[in-house]
């Protein structure tokens, strides 16, 4: 069974997965890089990094996926749809190496990149997008890659099997929150937490199987 999984989704103590306003110069708005400093310190990110608890969680981001789904605001800054030359933030060889589905209300033709990533642009419901990604994933899992709006929508639609969040000890106060509308999420998931010496808390949500 191909699972839908979320990994390394970093949130502030107050639940924001990005700050504001998002722009070309500041993709995470006033959050800057603070949500991901824990990850930049790991071996997953940098060969000279630390191989501890944070690394063990971070590495799962790359394991067992045959496709990714992301939102329009992860793919580019506001207005990228007006730029025919915009090909994402990641350069000619993006780090996905699979078919990657970008949800947008203004789709464009697919874009084949180096290294196995092809961006497909979809205006579809979360369920239909997941079905398309599963078809492309060749039996492997589908990563729901964010941002927080897409994570929230897929969780709300009951489509996510496993979610790994990283709670960073900062309070952003504004931005895009993942929790809104997800009341009593713990009823559907087993929730576990692991504290890291770095100061972040890893939370995993694993969907309960029907009794
Ligand atoms: N904290 C983390 O770990 C993490 C991870 C990934 C990304 N991020 C950051 O999060 C930010 C983006 O998050 P976000 O919540 O603002 O936006 P997002 O989830 O990336 O994208 C939301 C947008 O995608 C399009 N969309 C979503 N569902 C759709 C559907 N079913 N059909 C068609 N279009 C759909 C809509 O854009 P249009 O209407 O414009 O088409 C919507 O406004 C960026 O700063 C990114 O870098 C953070």
Describe the structure.
By secondary structure, this protein is of the alpha/beta class. The protein has one domain: Dihydrofolate Reductase, subunit A, CATH 3.40.430.10. Helix content is 17%, strand content 27%. It is built from five helices and eleven strands; from the N terminus they run ββααβαβββαβαββββ. The chain has helices at 37-40, 53-59, 72-75, 126-137, 148-156; strands at residues 4-12, 16-18, 65-71, 99-103, 111-112, 118-122, 141-144, 162-168, 176-177, 189-195, 201-207. The strands form two sheets. It has a nine-stranded mixed β-sheet with strand order 5-6-4-3-7-1-8-11-10, with helices on both faces. Bound molecules: NADP nicotinamide-adenine-dinucleotide phosphate. NADP nicotinamide-adenine-dinucleotide phosphate binds at residues 9-10, 17-18, 22, 27-28, 35, 71-74, 103-106, 123-126, 146-150, 153, 176. The site of NADP nicotinamide-adenine-dinucleotide phosphate has 27 residues, from β1, β2, α3 and α5. One of its GO terms (biological process) is riboflavin biosynthetic process. Residues 7-185 form the Bacterial bifunctional deaminase-reductase C-terminal domain. This is Dihydrofolate reductase family protein. Pfam families: RibD_C. GO terms for molecular function: 5-amino-6-(5-phosphoribosylamino)uracil reductase activity.
């Amino acid at each position: 069974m191909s699972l839908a999984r979320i990994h390394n989704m970093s949130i502030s103590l107050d639940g924001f997965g990005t700050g504001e306003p998002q722009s070309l110069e500041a993709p995470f708005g006033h959050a800057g890089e603070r949500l991901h400093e824990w990850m930049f310190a790991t071996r997953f990110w940098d060969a000279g990094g630390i191989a501890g608890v944070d690394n063990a969680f971070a590495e799962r981001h790359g394991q067992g996926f045959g496709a990714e789904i992301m939102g329009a605001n992860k793919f580019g800054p506001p207005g990228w749809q007006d730029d025919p030359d915009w090909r994402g933030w990641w350069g000619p060889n993006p780090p996905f190496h699979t078919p990657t589905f970008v949800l947008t209300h203004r789709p464009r033709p697919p874009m084949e990149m180096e290294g196995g990533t092809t961006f497909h642009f979809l205006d579809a419901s979360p369920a239909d997008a997941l079905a398309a990604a599963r078809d492309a994933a060749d039996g492997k899992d589908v990563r729901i890659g964010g941002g927080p709006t897409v994570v929230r929508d897929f969780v709300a639609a009951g489509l996510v099997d496993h979610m790994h969040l990283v709670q960073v000890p900062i309070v952003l106060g504004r931005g895009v929150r993942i929790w809104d509308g997800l009341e009593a999420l713990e009823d559907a998931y087993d929730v576990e937490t692991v504290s890291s010496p770095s100061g972040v808390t890893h939370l995993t949500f694993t969907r309960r199987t029907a009794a």
